[in-house]
Please model this.
Amino acid sequence: MTYSEWMRKYRRNLGIPLVLLAAYFAGLNPKFALPSTILVVAGETLRLWAAGHLRKEALITTGGPYGFVRNPLYIGSFLIAIGFCLISDSIWVWILVLAYFILCYLPVIRFEEKVLREKFPNEYSKYSGIVPALVPTLRRYPNPTTKFSWKQVIANKEYNAVLGILVTYAFLIVKSKVLPSF
Model:
């Protein structure tokens, strides 16, 4: 098993202790509440839009945000993470989050792209030649394969991300009230 495969399989398990450690270090700086909220809402909006199109390994998804960038879910997650880093007021949270994205998500992206190249060699080659991996293009992919569906959002369990966001903000608020100097 390669590092990328291992990381794809265990990234959520590794995320749990990371979240607990980040929660320990996190504060709540109200000065950054608005920019944090803007980034988190933008990130989750992108994730919802992407989840409404994504048909995991069933086809090359080129509709919605996938027409502009190959990994919109990860970009949305990154925006959410940066939003929480801002409000956390902790350099340790920044370090943990950035390390996690570099050591986890970049290898996972490589692995997932390898799977898609093997499963859909012609289609994925054409798609990846036009649509960048992480920096969105302004030119949309010419042949969208999907239309947005709320049923697909639910099938992709995106409600878990929404709940995670709400729980995280609630935790930060409670922690700042109960343990203000912690």
Remarks:
- The CA atoms of residues 164 and 170 lie 10 Å apart.
- The two ends are 41 Å apart (CA to CA).
- The chain has one domain: 3-178.
- The longest helix spans residues 91-119.
